[in-house]
Amino acid sequence: MSMVSKVLPLPLHSVTLLIVWLALNASIGLGHILLGTALGIIIPLLCKPLRMPEAPVKRPLKVISYIAIVAKDILVANVQVALLVVGPMRNIKPGFVAVPLDLPNIFPITVLASTVTMTPGTVSCEISSDKKWLYVHVLNMPDDEQEIIDFIKQRYEARIKEIFAC
Prior knowledge:
Blueprint: H1 3-7, H2 11-25, H3 30-47, H4 60-86, E1 95-100, H5 106-118, E2 122-127, E3 133-138, H6 146-164
Antiparallel strand pairs: 1-3, 2-3
């Protein structure tokens, strides 16, 4: 391990911290640059032992299509939720569903849980301690909860498995 990687274990994070520090203070004075640089070095060094190994992205081009699909789903779900909320309350049937997980690592599971939460009308509530189940709250539960499970597994989980090759 080189001296630079010991001092800057996460160089992108260090630069980002410096930029955010300067932006928050609306100043590029020497004092702020020095303090921002010090924070950009110290904070990643302190946080390095807390980092968990992440599953590497094996197919980065698939990320682009995944983001496009999620963005489209967010737009469509926004309209669906707006129509549901403006309509009669009796049309809203909230519920919980347990989605079985086939993802082996916590990072891909976190990506899935975050995707579900970003999509209006669904919220990831909990991941079981054995990491085999994702509990999701659904604003409008269909009569067959398997529809929600299949949608999440086929639309999101399958693509996440491709991205991380797991």
